[in-house]
Specification:
- The protein is mainly α.
- The chain contains 8 helices and no strands.
- The protein has helices spanning about 15-25, 35-45, 50-60, 65-85, 85-90, 95-105, 115-130, 130-135.
- The chain is globular and about 50 Å long.
- GO terms for molecular function: GTPase activator activity.
- Keywords: GTPase activation.
Length: about 140
């Protein structure tokens, strides 16, 4: 088993660490938001009333397996802290959603319109970040 130390110089670049994190989530056998919840999440963000969107996403997040819930909560809490430092890192909620949306929430089979699907994935992650305290 290979051991690594985050104190090693190769990990000092935030892009390397972020890339490794994204790769880890991308290579899971099933995304953090399981395939069976992909369509319900997308349908939730399509609801016309923002209040209803949040309420439905709360239900969906509560239905996650315990390990998925805990991991998603921890990761999003960290990403919320990143957003708080937008003045330093230029990572808005929207930027983070673009980076992590397709990694955390993806369909089992790629849709015909990849761009439309990615926009919805990004919107779902943006909603999770924007309403973190209510959802978790």
């Amino acid at each position: 088993e290979e051991r690594l130390s985050l104190a090693d110089p190769e990990w000092s670049d935030v892009h390397v660490v972020t890339g490794a994190l994204k790769l880890f989530f991308r290579e899971l056998p099933e995304p953090l938001v399981p395939y069976g919840l992909f369509n319900p999440f997308i349908e939730a963000i399509k609801l016309p009333d923002p209040q209803e969107q949040v309420e439905r996403v709360v239900e969906l997040v509560q239905s996650l397996p315990p390990a998925n819930y805990a991991t998603l909560r921890y990761l999003l809490a960290h990403l919320c802290r990143v957003v708080e430092r937008v003045d330093v890192n230029r990572m808005t909620r929207q930027n983070i959603s673009i980076v992590f949306g397709p990694t955390l929430l993806r369909p089992e089979r790629e849709p015909g319109s990849l761009a439309a699907g990615m926009a919805q994935q990004n919107q779902a992650v943006e909603l999770l970040l924007a309403h973190f305290d209510r959802i978790f």
